[in-house]
Design a protein that fits this description.
Chain lengths: 110, 113
């Protein structure tokens, strides 16, 4: 059974701080990695994706991938109260299926 | 462009009743998916359809059936609802392939009494 693990949280950070969200996966053959944000009562929406080892930056968001350690993370700089949500890590193996982690609940305190 | 739409938004069933959840996408995607989301468990795949005319089981298919009616529409049927099927159901679609994101519908909140 392919697994994706995340700390469920809640992770609380003060406004303006860096929030660090982590995800580990079990299948070494995993090829693409996605971070989704889900507000309470809403559907998931894509924030970032990453395919290659290293860092990928998009505005206040940075995704980091380390395939040797089977680890992917999402950093949110200058966290805002509007970033308070659940963040889902998703891993795509061999083209067809996504496997989602349980999500980490982030709370940004004003 | 509506993206992915789902009906109904909310539904309450009694144990043993049946119903069909409808999903449609207007992005010309080949692949469509049905997930359920329970507290603390993330999204679990029920069934998926890689392309029109094909369907496959996901992680939790028991108690469900699906129909890929055409390229746009993918329905999920509960033949005899059980309280364990109380959940939020999301439909998603994507292009085929490893590097394509999934787009989600707004979800259906189902309660089985």
């Amino acid at each position: 059974q392919k697994e994706v693990e995340q700390n469920s949280g809640p992770l609380s950070v003060p406004e303006g701080a860096i929030a660090s969200l982590n995800c580990t996966y079990s299948d070494r053959g995993s090829q693409s990695f996605f971070w989704y944000r889900q507000y309470s009562g809403k559907s998931p929406e894509l924030i970032m994706f990453i395919y290659s080892n290293g860092d990928k930056e998009d505005g206040r968001f940075t995704a980091q991938l380390n395939k040797a350690s089977q680890y992917v993370s999402l950093l949110i700089r200058d966290s805002q109260p509007s970033d308070s949500a659940t963040y889902l890590c998703a891993v795509n193996n061999y083209g067809q299926n996504f496997v989602f982690g349980p999500g980490t609940r982030l709370s940004v305190l004003p | 462009n509506a993206g992915v739409t789902q009906t109904p938004k909310f539904q309450v069933l009694k144990t043993g009743q049946s119903m069909t959840l409808q999903c449609a996408q207007d992005m010309n995607h080949n692949s469509m998916y049905w997930y359920r989301q329970d507290p603390g468990m993330g999204l679990r795949l029920i069934y998926y359809s890689a392309s029109e005319g094909t369907t496959d089981k996901g992680e939790v298919p028991n108690g469900y059936n699906v129909s890929r009616l055409n390229k746009r529409e993918f329905s999920l049927r509960l033949e005899s609802a059980a309280p364990s099927q109380t959940s939020v159901y999301f439909c998603a679609s994507s292009e085929m392939g490893t590097y394509n994101e999934q787009f989600f519908g707004p979800g259906t909140r189902l309660t089985v009494l």
